[in-house]
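retry 2 of 3: previous attempt timed out while embedding calcium ion. Reduced batch size to 1 and resubmitted. Inputs unchanged:
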Amino acid sequence: MSLAYLKQEELEERFLFHIKSLVNEDIIKGDGNPNFKELKRIFESVDDNHDNFISQTELEDLIGNVFELQKDDIPMEYAKATIMSHFDDDNSGNISWEEFEKGCNKWMEKWKIVTNSSNSASGNLWEKASPIY
Ligand SMILES: [Ca+2]
Ligand SMILES: [Ca+2]
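retry 2 succeeded.
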């Protein structure tokens, strides 16, 4: 077994970073609140068959789109498991809009705290990911 996998936090960070690159507008508004309109747009674009759930297959597509799996050296199964464990609150095996919204919120709360603390690696990443006003 290799321990070379990204830690869960790094993977989540990378995921959010890539998610941000999918949208034109910032997913956190100037007032610090999540931009739900953009999140909904991401959700709908991922939900290929429009049943209001992100299935495992649809998630695989998203992961394929947002990660450079080869370059980042992230195994698909690991990325999927990490993301499912973050979002899939009721263990149904798919992600509802409510779960997606809640999961993104959880991340953003976390990163708001990290970004406000001094010079951490995450803070730097967040700054890189944020548009320059
Ligand atoms: Ca679906
Ligand atoms: Ca679920």
